Amino acid sequence: MKKLVLLMAMLTLFFTTASIASAHPGRLDSNGGHNCSDKSKAKGLCSGYHYHNGNSGNNTGTSSGGQSYSTPAPKATVAPVLTKVAVYLNDVKQNYTPSAYMKNGTTLVPMKAIFESLGASVSYDNATKKVTATKDSKKIVIGVGNKTAYVDTNGSASTITLSHPAEIYQGTTMVPLRFVSQALGANVTFDEAALVVYISTK
Which of 25, 151, 174, 201 is within CB 3.0–4.6 Å of 108 for a Cys-Cys bond? Predict the structure, then answer.
């Protein structure tokens, strides 16, 4: 009796395995699925092309439980909007390339062009990413990406804190407008409504 029960169990296992195998003949394709055989369709084991592990052929992933999940799209980095600003030096309009601009509420101006217009000599060290401006007995050094400028006047050292780091734009070092006044003593005003910067040494 026991041998009969064991034999029946083995036969049941064999036919079940055969049915599953016939429902999934062949290898999975690149999409992770395949077509059922006509024999499997007749037995009602499947109805045609199907996927495995929850994959539907779309841009989804699969968890360990076979459940599909959507892959979140990466968030795009939004570049800050640059608003061009006109510059007047002693009431004469300047044509700088690049021009001054507003970025995140701060007016940035081309350091070399404006400092040279105010009588300073300016040099840039590409190795250290530092700009050095010299006028009379004053030496000013600021590094790109920094918000602190170092000033030496007749051997007396001091620092100037910028509202925005110095940055490179179109190959030019840009600094906050207020830094022009702090560094060289020029009078600066900004007409925000007209988007015009006025720099005066008079």
Answer: 174
